[in-house]
Every structure is written in C-alpha cells, then in structure tokens.
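If it is no trouble, might I ask you for a protein's amino acid sequence along with its backbone structure tokens?
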Amino acid sequence: MNFVQWIGAGLGWTFGGPIGAIIGWVVGNALDSGASTFFDEFDGQKTSKRPKRVHSKRSTSRRPQEKTTQSGDFEISLLMLSAIVIKADGKTDQKELDYVRQQFVSMYGKQRANNAFKLFNGIMKKKGISTRQICMQIQRNMDHASRLQLLHYLFGIAQADGHVSEDEVNSIRKMAGYMYINLSDFESIKAMFFSDTNNAYKILEIEKDATDDEVKKAFRTMAKKYHPDKVQHLGEEHLKGAEEKFRKVKQAYEQIQQERGF
C-alpha cells in the first residue's frame, strides 16, 4: 500500500474540517517539493478511486450514539494531537518522536507506520495549527471511549523523554477540555503516569475519605468506563492501550484494598 492509498484507506470523517485542510496542505507541500513519486498512482485514480468528500448534517447535529470511529480516523487524530503535544514545550525531543514511531509500528506494522510518518513529518512542519479546531472536530465525530484512549496515548508521548513538563500537561488538559473530556477523567488518566500517594484514588475518581462501599462502586464504574471492549471497534491494534488503562484501574483498587484491609 503506497502513501496515497494509505491516506485514502485511513481517512473517514477527517477529510472535512481543519484536519482535512491540514492533510491537504501536507500533501500539496509534498507535491510542490518534488515528492510526486508518492502520488503517481493518485493521478490515475482521480475519477474512480479518489475518496469523495461527504457533506453531512451529522457534523453539527449528531446524537452521541451515532458517533462511529474507525481505526483510520483514530490514527489520523493520533498524528495530529501527537504533533501538538511534542511541540508544546517549544522543542522537539527525539525520544518523543521515537515513542510515536514505536507505538505506530507496534499497532499498525512497519509499512503502515512508515506511511503514517510521511504525513506526520509534514504535520510537524506545519505552523499555526489550531488545537481548538482540531479537537472540536474530533469531539464532534469521535465517541467518548476513543477520546479517552487518545488522552492516554498523549500522556504516554509526554512521558517518553522521562519527564512530563508543565507545558505538556497544560497542552493535554486544554485538548481534553476541547474534546469534552471532563476534569475527573483527565485527572484519572493523568494519575496513571505519575507517582503520588493519592494516585489510586485519583484513578478511581474518588476522594481519599471515600467509604469502602464508595471505593467498590467507583471501581465498578471505572472498570466499565475503561473496559477494552469500549474501543473494540477501533481494531485489535488499539486493545493493548485499552488493556493498560484497565490494568491501572485494577491495580489502584487492589492497592486501596490492601491499605484498608477489605
């Protein structure tokens, strides 16, 4: 699968809005730079295989249960938000870039990851990307469980260099807000990447003075929220990250159980 075929296969709702515009800029820039070898086949497919732009009322008036997220939509969203997080502290860290590549190879295989990085490198060079517009498009089109999975992944990128800076945390918090992820969910996922005595309670989204019954109820709620089945529609390649979130919830509950002796 060449670069253009990958783009065509990997995009769904992302062809419209700011995400589609940025991808169009990247592709156009690649052509202007003489990288036409990537797009030779594209010219011959303009009338038959080129993905059609779809205008839908769902983008402005869609009920939550109608949102469907495909693996390709999630993949493009990862690239866009990863670039924003990596550039949040004003520098491009090679460890963070390596982490993104490693994760894409792990999830999608080497060939698909290489195609993704052709696009990612172009996104990294693009200036003036509107975090708000990108996140709002994701919020309108992506289900809540998939957005939580995005957030988990972004903290993984920020931590890849061994230190999560305040700028990176603020950037991810801003994106969470734009994607309609509430503060409790944000703090829950954030706590999975930090060492703190109260993190077990933060992961379960409860206070330290919660009763044993409240702890048990919180565990059931969070286990349901972060269950890997929630993102099964994204494909097997994303189950590993979902299982990691679920495992953190179980570990948090077991830690509190041990501390309290129930």
